[in-house]
Each structure stands twice: as C-alpha cells, then as structure tokens.
Specification:
The structure is a homodimer of 338-residue chains. Chain A has 338 residues and is an alpha/beta fold. In chain A, 38% of the residues lie in helices and 15% in strands. The first copy, chain A, has twelve helices and eight strands.
C-alpha cells in the first residue's frame, strides 16, 4: 500500500510537505537531495504524541514517586513526592512550563526526584517497567490508552517519508529510554533512531552478567541548543526536515538545513480544544520564529482531519486506568509500521 | 555477488564465524536471533585498520600541531607540540600505551594539545580537513595511503554480516568525527553508525547559518567501561557480535550478549611482523580474558590470507606523502560498500 497523507486537509501545511517531497526526490531537479542525506527529525512530546495535561513520562514517573511515598512517610511532605502523593498536577506542569520560559528551579527539584526514582536499576529492568506502563496506563482525560495517544497524521507523515527514502529520527527532550520500547509500535521508529535526554549510565562487571545501571544524575537534558548537538552526535548529518512544537525546538529547526538544498521546518500548533488541547504556552517564541523565517505552522484544528487513529476510545476504569490488561490487545488493527 | 570470507584461512576463527552465523540465521533453530537484534560492533584502531606506528588520527593531529608550532616558536618546547615539531613518535605512542596500562598522565597532555588544535571550528570544516588528510596522506612505512590501510578480511566480514541481516557499528576509542568521513568508503559503515570519542560541541546561532563548533574540551573518551555506555546510548540494544584488539575493548566484549542467544566475541591479535606488525602491548589483559572466557582470537598471521586489499602499494614521495593528489583515485577498484 502506498502511504498517503489522508489525515491532512488540503491546506497549506499538506501543500508544503508535498511540494518539499516533490523537490527533493525529483531526479534531475535543482532541489534533488540524495537519499543518504534525506534525514528528518521529530520532537516527541506535543509533536508526535499528546503532552497534556502531562507528558506520559511524567505520569510514569508520578506512579513511581507515588510508590516511593507509599513506602516512606517523610517523602510525602517534599516535592516532587508531595505532588505525586496528592496528585497535584499543577505543580508538576508548572515546573515544565517554567523551564520553557527559562526558569529551571522547579525542574531541578523534579529531576532530583526522577533521578532518585530510577537510579541504580539496569537498562533492561527499566525497559520492562516502561513496557508495563504502556500495557496498563491510560490518558487521564482522553479516554484512551497512552499507546493510542500518538497523532495519526504524524504517523502517516513518517510512513510517507519512509517511502520517499527518508530516515526519520525522534529528537526529544523526553527520556530516550522511555520512548524506545514503544517508538516502533507507535511510529515505526526503531530504538537506534530515538534521541533524547538520559540519566548517566555506569558499567558494572562482576561474577555474573555485565550490566549497565542508571546513575542518580542526569547525563544531559536534550532540549534547546542541546538538540542540534545530540542530533549531530548521533547522525553526523544535518536534517533537512524537522518538526517541533515548542520554544525548545527552535535550535533544532534552525540547524536543519543543507547548503543549496530545500529544507522544511514545521511547528505543530495546539489549537484544537475539541479533539485535543488548545495552548500556546511555551511556544510563543517558536511561533514568532516561524512567522519571521517562513517555517510551516501546522494547525491541529485546520490541517488535520483527525488527531488520533482508530480504534476509538476504550472504556476506562476508575482513576483512568485500563480495567484489565486483557482488554488491551498487543496488536492494534492499525499497524503504523509500514 | 554473494560476499564471502575469501581472505580468511580455513581455520578456527573462520569456523567460529561461520558456525555463529549459521546458528543465528537458522529459521527454527534454538539459536535463532531476529534480524532487528543482529547488532555487531567493531573497534576501529587495530581492529579494522592499522594503528602502528601510530593511529591515523594521531598523524592527522601531528600535522595540525606541527602547523601550529611552525607559527608559534614557544609551542616548540612544550608537549605535545615539541613531539610533533621534532617528529618524536616515541613520546606520542608511549602516551597511548601508558593509557592502556592505566596511566593517563601523558594522554592528558596530548589531549590538551588536541583540544586546542581543533577547538572553535565547525563540524563541517573539520569534515573537510579530515577528508583532505585522507586524500593526501600515507602510512609512514607500509607504502600505501591511509585510506588503503583497512584490513581486507574485516571489510569482507562486514559485507558477510550485511548479507546475514546484521547491522554493524564502529565503536571506537578514536574520534567519532574523524572516522565518519571515510567509514563508508573503507568499511561500508555510514556516519550514523560510527560511535567514538568526541570533543564537546556548542551550538551558535547568529545572523547567518546556525553552526555547531567544537569546544576545547573532551566530551567523553569512548574506551573501556565507556564503550558499553556509548553503545547503549546510540543503539538501545546489546550487540551479539563484537570485535576488538586491546584491553580497552574488554567491557564492550563482555557486554555483547543476549540471554539465550549465541554471542561471538573476537580479538584481533597482531602477530604478523611481515605483513603488518607484531605486538601484544596493551592487549595482555584482553588476551587473558579471551583465554578464560572462550572468546575467539584472530591471528593475523594464521587466520588471514591477506591483510590489505588490492590495489597494492603505491609509490610514495618523500616523508611518506603521496606525490600528487591526482595519483590517488577517489574510486577504488575494490568497492567495499556492497
């Protein structure tokens, strides 16, 4: 089956994509780009999947922090355990909004909790915890499992890019190893093409198996000017297509160009309160850049015929958790991995 | 054409490779490994190409340090510029040997020079300098350009792995961005599959093009216990095949195994004074590990019918430099990129 942009309306965003793809693939055209140089990068939170009312990674972390507070009374009066214990999403979300506005004070408090929550476990154990989370956890208000919270039009775009000889990477501020176990199912992106933030890792060899354990410190936070650094480190090329949705994506988009070649830079704008959410907070500067530099703004409301793929919402139990694991099939009818 | 191990003698090393490949690819066999998990990692210096009397990267660096000393008299009495200026390979090589033995004092002095030599230039400018080096520079004693100093049996192995559904990465202590411009020509390995050490990088956006510049500090040195860390960071999987040649490769080899799956760990032993070099310095502990853990030791003298591919040695001018750029074709008759 030929992949197509069926979830995109016949508007300017779809037109910009189609024109760009035609130019770079036209064999003798002035904008032709050899397949090896057709590199695309996608932010994840708010670009490929829903990030409101909180990023899925934050919910995963909250569940872990809540577990810790359940076992340790003293933690319940300290952030971020207090917020997790009382379910105070406001404090947690504000920490991220503050970060996008240049104030990292609460983010530092949050990250201290996160690093304590996952320090000293092996990379394989973390993988299993993440996979378990996606088997059992659901979005708190959209009435669908987190693993059905990827944007259908973006999954389509990824398949269209595959068919046009592109290699697509996720380049996210989120935790690299949190996205890896599900990126192939959601987006058709294998683990080696997931770039993101990371805790430090320590190698430990003993009598048994050689292990890699997370350290209770961040190795790096892959956002803002760090994004082009991590993209170069991993790929060794500049992208020619990049998609983001917030101020932290500006350097990634600005870096995505080759001399004499077409480039497509896109910003997903969350203006769809009915089907998803409506917010520009943390994206003001990026939208301003888009306006001044001719980057393509994708309006969720106007440019997408649908936000999420079928199957439609599933019945959820109390607390937004899925009622039973057996209700969630491991094989979605929509297989996004062309 | 089906790739084959024609440069490998019918010995135990070739047998171990063939048995391993048969096991992991046998569709219903107990050792079957799905293609996505067929990940192979190769050290570079002394494993894929010649590292004596010095690593090609060191020669590249010496040329740059010599340039600096030519312009600044004061540098000529300080290491590493003094060694570069007087052509004192002993000091430089000893710095690396000491490192492999756990003494990093001279390596620190060398790295300080290296970081000063390449700080503040853009990633693209560095690429051009490296490409220029490989167009014009030759091995000091083997009478062949550096770009013909890759081991033919290893290039064959990489092609055989391609045909068996493997994805192969370079995982080297050498500078990542030094290997990238030539890894495809020498080994058929694209830049996104080159893992190695790196200087720090800084993003700079101004009125013109957004740039990435090297910082005058190391970001990390990808050797020893850092190798598994970098492999995981980049790939998100454990390898099942790994090849090295020195003590710094021990953690990488130990990390290369999946539960219940076959694993092949190999060490290239330099015991061929006639065709290449004969040395175990810096590999003593690794050879001991191989002996105790059943890792496969590849004897260059006994296991390889040839070390380097044709075309044979080219006539060199004074100082081991190629007489004219036009004497070196960009298109080798042997194209290793299947």
């Amino acid at each position: 089956m030929v992949a197509a942009l069926g979830s995109w309306t016949e508007g300017s965003a779809r037109g910009a994509i189609e024109e760009f793809l035609a130019r770079v693939t036209e064999p003798n055209g002035s904008g032709h780009v050899e397949p090896a140089a057709r590199v695309a990068v996608f932010d994840n939170d708010g670009t490929l999947w829903c990030e409101k009312p909180m990023q899925p990674q934050l919910d995963f972390t909250i569940q872990r922090l809540r577990e810790m507070a359940d076992h340790d009374v003293e933690l319940r009066t300290r952030q971020p355990w207090q917020a997790a214990h009382t379910g105070d999403l406001t404090w947690l979300n504000e920490a991220l909004i503050k970060h996008y506005r240049g104030d990292d004070s609460d983010l530092a408090v949050l990250m201290d909790g996160v690093t304590r929550a996952f320090g000293e476990i092996s990379v394989e154990e973390y993988q299993q915890r993440v996979s378990g989370f996606f088997r059992t956890s659901a979005h708190p208000s959209l009435a669908r499992p987190y693993r059905d919270c990827g944007y259908a039009p973006m999954a389509e775009l990824l398949r269209v890019l595959d068919e046009h000889g592109f290699t697509s990477y996720i380049a996210s501020g989120g935790d690299r190893d949190f996205m890896r176990p599900v990126a192939r199912t959601l987006y058709g992106v294998p683990p080696e093409r997931v770039i993101g933030s990371s805790l430090g890792l320590t190698y430990r060899a003993g009598a048994g198996r050689a292990e890699l354990l997370y350290e209770p410190t961040m190795d790096f936070f892959d956002d803002g000017p760090e994004k082009p650094v991590r993209i170069w480190s991993r790929i060794g090329r500049r992208p020619i297509l990049s998609v983001g949705n917030s101020n932290g994506d500006i350097p990634m988009l600005a870096f995505s160009e080759l001399p004499g070649a077409p480039a497509l830079r896109m910003l997903v704008r969350h203006d769809d309160a009915q089907r998803e959410f409506d917010y520009d907070a943390g994206a003001e500067e990026a939208l301003d850049h888009a306006d001044r530099n001719g980057w393509t703004v994708v309006s969720m409301r106007n440019d997408w015929t649908r936000v999420f793929a079928d199957p439609a919402a599933k019945l959820l139990g109390p607390m937004g958790r899925l009622p039973r694991e057996s209700d969630v099939s491991d094989n979605d009818s929509r297989d996004t991995c062309g």
